[in-house]
Design a protein that fits this description.
Bound molecules: S-adenosylmethionine
Number of domains: 2
CATH class of the largest domain: Alpha Beta
Radius of gyration: 20 Å
CATH superfamily of the largest domain: Vaccinia Virus protein VP39
Distance between the termini: 74 Å
Shape: globular
Strand content: 15-25%
Length: 244
């Protein structure tokens, strides 16, 4: 008897279903890539990992651990896809009085998209000088920019956020830096009480946010269970309970 003849009709169906799932996943991935490429052309920016091999040599893109990060838990550069990015901006609803910070801003994809909204200021914080240079170039040429962009080359835990009202994080670092930067933001609320909101994409250390009694989750999309294989697509949204 051949292997095929031994297979039960049930296992054939499972194999077909798995094949269909794989085909669909590939199609979605290609769709995301095409949508990202189209957005880059329309915006006039280059924020993918590697452009003509140049990006591939940037240490931030290789994700090397570095002494520049106090807790040495930096995550390698990867831009947020434009599908989630646009939806994230809708839920953060920036307005003219907002000051926007992207924590771990890489080549500036989030900064460039944010700066197309009218706000007071858009600021990126990034460890690696090469990525900062690239983000500044992108911010200078993005089409439809309405707000000035500053890029600060520093560890996020060393920055003064006392004017910040919107913060975004796309899985930029590990638990230690996440905990520390939330504390810095919280301290800034004592010196300048205000309402803030935070969008956290691929929220692997969301429990650190949940443990912070001064924060509450106000929205999320896609699976928020870290064991789900589509977890990387999720974004959660947090705000302070009251202006401290
Ligand atoms: C996953 S990428 C996100 C890039 C960008 N926010 C985006 O979504 O397009 C994370 C970025 O955070 C930067 N990063 C990691 N730890 C950092 C730290 N402690 N301070 C500043 N930037 C950091 C990394 O170098 C990397 O460029």
């Amino acid at each position: 008897m051949t292997d095929t003849a031994q297979q039960s009709p049930g296992s054939n169906k499972e194999a077909e279903a798995e094949e269909r799932r794989t085909f669909l996943e590939r199609a979605v991935r290609r769709g995301y890539m095409a949508w990202n490429a189209l957005n880059e052309i329309v915006l006039g920016v280059e924020t993918e990992y590697s452009v003509s091999g140049v990006g591939a040599r940037m240490p931030g893109i290789q994700g090397v651990e570095t002494d520049r990060s106090r807790y040495r838990d930096n995550v390698r550069y990867a831009p947020l896809d434009y599908v989630r990015l646009r939806r994230m901006m809708d839920l953060l609803a920036p307005g003219v009085d907002d000051v926007f910070y992207d924590l771990g801003s890489g080549r500036g994809r989030i900064l460039c998209t944010a700066a197309r909204h009218r706000m007071k200021r858009v600021v990126g914080i990034e460890l690696f000088e090469e990525l900062c240079v690239s983000a500044r170039e992108n911010a200078a040429r993005v089409r439809g920019r309405q707000t000035p962009v500053d890029v600060i080359c520093a560890d996020v835990v060393t920055v003064d956020y006392s004017d910040g009202t919107i913060f975004t994080l796309h899985l930029p670092f590990g638990e230690a830096t996440t905990r520390a930067v939330l504390q810095v933001i919280r301290d800034s609320l004592r010196t300048n009480p205000r309402n803030i909101r935070i969008g956290y994409a691929h929220p692997l250390y969301e429990y650190v946010f949940a443990e912070a009694s001064w924060l509450e989750k106000y929205a999320s999309f896609r699976p928020t269970d870290a064991t789900n294989k589509n977890f990387w697509r999720s974004v959660s949204f947090w705000r302070n309970k009251s202006a401290l």
